[in-house]
TrEMBL record:
The lineage of its organism: Eukaryota, Fungi, Dikarya, Basidiomycota, Agaricomycotina. This is Uncharacterized protein. It comes from the Eukaryota. Residues 97-129, 274-395 are annotated as: Disordered. Residues 116-129 have a biased composition (Low complexity).
């Protein structure tokens, strides 16, 4: 089919891609796989059927936790032109979600499950009782199941540099573990086929499990099914680091589930082709199916919007609590600083008081000493005056005695 398309359309590269959001968004679009798959297998199936996978890279991030993801290179042949399309495919645990048994199931749901119980992604109302530890326990399979959040990032411009930049921005530096090249001599895989693989893989393992159904499993199982369907050429220089956690060894590999996923893919793809044949033969049924798919898409989009709103509200509440905590902490630090300053002032005043008291005691001692010295000086002066008086009296007595003697001599 792909060879026939190439012969019928002598193509060249166009600067203006068609206005198809599921293939050419205006900005890089990070969406849930059900959103993308509903468009590729529904409203955009006519154009998407002319879009084929040409290369699939299995990549691993360098930084912990060593996230693994797929880089899908697709080419659209449309109206005699050729357009390159780049998407990123990866799995993460859904944040703050719970199992909702009443949630509508996605279309083309597989009848087989690798994990039990199945769950669908639904919004969790913010609850004060929810703790991060519950989420972690669910990921470790020790608590309530945590749904897998399988996502597709569509690159806006169709440029390889933008593709690489988007990968680096999302996951940091990374290495390519394995590459699958689908050339003219290989069996083509269309975008609807790729979308079917993504849906089947999710429906078989809808819950995220760190030891079993994590990003390693999802990336590898999609890669294995694409390889089996296309018989493409591989280049696996770094395959030895495939699927290795940075701190523990996983207990389950996608290789164990390849046959199960392949069987479910074959069933889902046959069912899709049958429904497409019926759609082409019955326009009324086609409209009904299109409306159902559109409604499913709207439900998924509404779920995504609600979850985004809740995340924004939670983030705002966290920011307010953080601001309040910082304000209280700042006030506490200011009060503590004031208390320390007051305590220092009190100690300084106490020291000044002690110094003044010591100075008073010293002044009192000096006064007593001065008084004692004054008394001693007064007593000494009195003694000296008494001595002087005694000496004067003695001298006067001697003078009188001499005068008396001389007077007598002269008289004689």
């Amino acid at each position: 089919m792909l060879e026939l398309i190439k012969r019928l359309f002598p193509f060249f590269m166009s600067a203006k891609p068609p206005n198809i959001h599921s293939l050419f968004p205006r900005t890089n679009d990070d969406i849930n796989i059900f959103y993308w798959c509903s468009r590729i297998l529904g409203l955009d199936v006519g154009i998407a059927s002319m879009c084929f996978l040409t290369r699939l890279d299995h990549c691993k991030a360098d930084r912990a936790p060593k996230h693994e993801f797929l880089k899908a290179y697709l080419t659209l042949y449309w109206n005699g032109k050729k357009y390159d399309i780049y998407i990123i495919i990866h799995r993460t645990p859904a944040p703050d979600v719970e199992v909702d048994p009443d949630a509508p199931k996605p279309q083309r749901t597989s009848t087989t499950s690798l994990a039990s119980p199945q769950s669908t992604i639904s919004s969790r109302s913010p609850s004060p009782s929810f703790r991060l530890s519950e989420h972690i326990l669910g990921i470790l399979e020790k608590g309530h199941p945590v749904p897998a959040n399988d996502r597709v990032i569509i690159i806006k411009t169709g440029q390889v540099k933008d593709f690489d930049d988007a990968c680096t921005k999302s996951f940091g530096s990374y290495i390519t573990l394995n590459s699958l090249f689908i050339r003219d001599e290989h069996t083509p895989m269309s975008a609807p086929q790729l979308a079917t693989v993504l849906e089947v893989a999710h429906n078989l393992a809808p819950n995220y499990s760190l030891k079993q159904y994590q990003c390693y499993w999802y990336a590898l199982i999609v890669f294995l099914i694409a390889r089996k369907q296309t018989n493409g050429d591989e280049s696996n220089k770094c395959i030895k680091t495939l699927g290795k956690l940075w701190w523990m060894a996983p207990t389950h590999s996608a290789d164990d589930d390849e046959n199960v996923v392949q069987d479910e893919y074959d069933k889902a793809w046959a069912q899709f082709q049958k429904s497409e044949d019926e759609r082409q033969c019955n326009p009324e049924e086609a409209r009904r199916l299109a409306q159902e798919r559109a409604a499913g898409f709207e439900r998924q989009a509404e779920d995504e919007r609600n979850r985004a709103d809740e995340e924004r509200k939670r983030a705002e509440e966290e920011r307010k609590r953080a601001d309040e905590a910082r304000s209280n902490e700042a006030n506490a630090r200011e009060s503590e600083a004031n208390a320390r300053e007051s305590e220092a002032n009190a100690r300084e005043s106490e020291a000044n008081a002690r110094e003044s008291e010591a100075n008073a005691r010293e002044s009192e001692a000096n006064a007593r000493e001065s008084e004692a010295n004054a008394k001693r000086n007064e007593e000494e002066a009195l003694r000296k005056a008494e001595d002087e008086k005694s000496k004067r009296l003695e001298l006067e007595a001697e003078v009188r005695q001499l005068r008396a003697q001389f007077g007598v001599r002269e008289h004689a």
